[in-house]
Amino acid sequence: EVCSVEPHPRATGLKICGVGVGRARLLTIVCGAPNVATGLRAPMALVGTTLPGGTTVSKADISGTESQGMLCSAAELGLAESSEGLMVLDPEAVPGQSLRETLRFDDTVFDIELTPNRGDCLSVAGIAREVAALTGARLHAPNMQAVSARTRRDIKIRLQAQKDCPHYVGRAIEDIDQGVPTPAWMVERLRRSGMRRVSAVVDVTNYVMLELGQPMHAFDLDKLTNSIRVRQAAANETLKVLDGTEVRLEAGTLLITDDTGPVALAGIMGGSSTAVGPDTCNLLLESAFFRPQAIAGRARRLGLQSESSYRFERGVDPQLQRKAIERATVLLREIAGGRPGPVIDAKIERYLPKRPTVALRQRKITQLLDQSLPSSRIERTLNRLAMRVRKGKDGWRVTPPSYRFDIEREVDLIEEIARVHGYENLPSKAPQILMCSSFKSECEIAHERFKLALVDRDYQEVITYSFVDPELQSAIEPRFKPLMLVNPISADMAAMRVSLWPGLLQAIAYNANRQQERVRVFELGRSFVRRAETMAQDRMLAGAVIGPALPPQWGVKPRESDFFDVKRDVQALLQITGRVDSFDIRHGTHPALHPGQSAQISCQGNAIGWLGGLHPDLVAKLGLNRPVFLFELQVSALQRGQIPQFGAISKFPAIQRDLALLVDVQTSAREVMDTMRKAAGELLVDLQLFDEYRGEGIDSGRKSLALALTLQDSSRTLKDEVVDEILARVVRSLQSELGAELRTK
After folding, report:
1. Domain 1-106 is in which class?
2. What SS3 state is found at 228?
3. Radius of gyration, alpha carbons of the chain
4. Distance between CA atoms of residues 585 and 270, nearest Å
5. Residue pair 316/214 in contact by the 8 Å Cβ criterion
6. Where are the alpha helices (DSSP H) in 606-719?
7. Mapped to the 3 state alphabet, what secondary structure does 35-65 carry?
8. pLDDT band for position 231 (50/70/90)?
């Protein structure tokens, strides 16, 4: 305790203090702290003490006066990053007592990792409820008595976004003394919870949030104009927030505004224009319930994640807002004085979440836990969890408390009973599983065959989310309306995928943006497409390619992957089925694909997939600087393989002939080859396209195709006249059906 303070006679700015430390005589301490004063109680380091920074305190002669120790700031003790003066202790602190004992440093800090569904435990009160339920101990709630108004000052509250904010509680408090320091006990509790001291007002709102789980905000009342409105932002509205960042808002972002414009991002962060500062003497306390879906993902997209948004995203007790206002009022009056106004409580009951009443059956508990628990034990457990229990004919009707958003079904209640009862107290029993052999047709091809084929062709398997960005998906596949999620993880994961391409393209972009030039990925997964009244969940196999066709090799000239590289990969998959001739790859139009590099894949007349280059607009949208090639196939169409049949190798020679044909540029090679196969008959055992030419010597509307025909008879040697007749028949068919002609030069 500082018992006396005198100016140092030979050093400007220093003071000579008489400090009591519980001994018979006072110690002389030379101190330059601006806040040293008679009656102040502060930490004292005696001679020989080593401070956290490594400094050892010793007697020192300071301008002719011996200093017998050191009065300390919070920064010097390692309890704060910076300090403007001595650390002020509680006036009831006992001089001479160890600081460790005064501040209760011999404490245990629990680091609790919660699952997202247990937002009710993000507070001391929430953890205390859990401990009381698990141990049967009595729960001691903090003082939350209503504080009567001492002034009539209030402010109008208008809820314009009623669904997103159905409950908003405010209270004006006048004549706050901002010069009063936050009590040491509160500063220390905040520090142990990972929060730094700011000011008495802000510290109280943070303390109530940590204590009760209700985020709060304080506005400088004199900087607000007329009323508080809760509304959704218009596109491109801006707000400068507390950390100095000016953010541009998306349409639909929930805002707190006054009559002049935005003053806070609801549930995330306050605005700088109405922030509480050193000169604030009148303030407005805010305590509100914001719908989790209105806050979820917004802070992350804006780069403004906060303790408040973390709690609102997980759900805050909709019955807590008024209690938090009263608790904050009590603490503020104790610390900084002030005259509270009436509580302004704006509430839209129909939009407040209601907890469902759940039927709980005794036999279901026994079935799931494999243990019969007495009814009295079950009721006692539910009561300890603050649930309303009504006995029914076949069990109970149970209503969870307002803060338990995770309890919706009977199994949720049974899980709670098991948790409180103790999983270790449940019987350990190996599961009984009915074993039966599965039937698999000989012609069914395993998924692994297709995966391994792609791995062998230098692809890497990826597993992407089934939830995708609705905007990207509509750009890729606008023909199907996606199934939207009610409670998405984030706005860019709000739709169920109708194609595997969005996830693969995001994987391509992610890798390309990290200097990966050659990326080849595939995925086997389900798509979710509405068909009539059902949701089809087709298993699809898709791939995406960007960059060089081959890894760097000194003997091979590098070239970019193209349409035909990916087409060969698709044909390798079709080859596995043993019925490659039943598949057809023809030009088609897909909104996601380049108009000149797209093909539809069909099987016996039924479309089963697509192949092609990504549309240039989508390449630009993804921020890529080189073409991307894609394919996607229905796995069910590939799984039906052809059972291999033995066929003897012919002992008679095969005859190969080449034909060079001139056809219209619009005529596909596939049409030409189909016509040739039909005309040649069974003796044609192989047909290959080995050249295409357009240019000098060829009419501009024509192209030259060169094909190799292999003819063979398994029962005899083919004579030239038979081969010539087959070729003549082929040429006649090509001329009559496709307008083709033999190229003679």
Report:
1. mainly beta
2. strand
3. 39
4. 58
5. yes
6. 616-621, 635-639, 669-680
7. CCCCCCCCCEEECCCECCCCCECCCEEECCE
8. very high
Strands (E), 477-582: 495-496, 519-526, 529-531, 534-536, 539-546
| DSSP state for residue 95 in the 8-state scheme | T
Fold (CATH) for 655-742: Alpha-Beta Plaits (3.30.70)
pLDDT tens digits, one per residue of 514-528: 999 999 999 999 999
Q: What is the DSSP string of 456-472?
A: HTT-EE----SEE-HHH
pLDDT at 47: 93
CATH architecture of 358-425: 2-Layer Sandwich (3.30)
CB neighbours of residue 320 within 10 Å: 24
What is d(CA 224, CA 284) in angstroms, rounded to the nearest whole number? 9
**Residue of 617, 615, 738, 627 lying closest to 679 (CA atoms):** 738
For CATH 3.30.56.10, the residue range(s) in the chain are: 358-425
Residue from 351, 226, 222, 217 nearest 286 by CA: 217
> How far is residue 5's CA from residue 34's CA, in Å, rounded to a whole number?
12
CATH number of 447-639: 3.30.930.10
| DSSP string computed for 356-387 | PPEEEEHHHHHHHHSS---HHHHHHHHHHTT-
Torsion of CA 640, 643, 648, 650, to 10 degrees: -10
Mean pLDDT on 209-222: 95
> Can you say whether the dihedral through the CA atoms of 192, 194, 197, 203 is positive or negative?
negative
- pLDDT grade, residue 480 (50/70/90)? confident
120 exposure class (CB count in 10 Å sphere: 0-12, 13-18, 19+): buried
The CATH number assigned to the domain with range 156-351 reads 3.50.40.10
Kind plus residue range of the DSSP H or E element containing 200: helix 200-212
Angstrom distance (rounded) from CA 295 to CA 316 = 12
Two tokens, residue 78: 């390692």
Residue 394, pLDDT score: 83
Give start-end residues of each CATH 2.40.50.140 domain in the chain: 1-106
Q: Is 422 left (phi over 0), alpha (psi -120 to 50) or beta?
A: left
- B/e letters for 340-368, b = 16+ CB within 10 Å, e = fewer, are bbebbebbeeebeeebeebebbeebbeee
Residues of the chain with CATH 3.50.40.10: 156-351
Q: Which residues make up the CATH 3.30.70.380 domain(s) of the chain?
A: 655-742
Contact 568, 554 (CB under 8 A): no
Q: How far apart are CA 237 and CA 260, in angstroms?
A: 13
Where in the chain do CATH 3.30.930.10 domains reside? 447-639
pLDDT at 441 over 70: no
pLDDT category at 643 given cuts 50, 70, 90 is: low
Query: Helix 200-212 to helix 124-135 angle, to the nearest 10 degrees?
Result: 30
- What the block records as the tokens of 411 is 């199994």
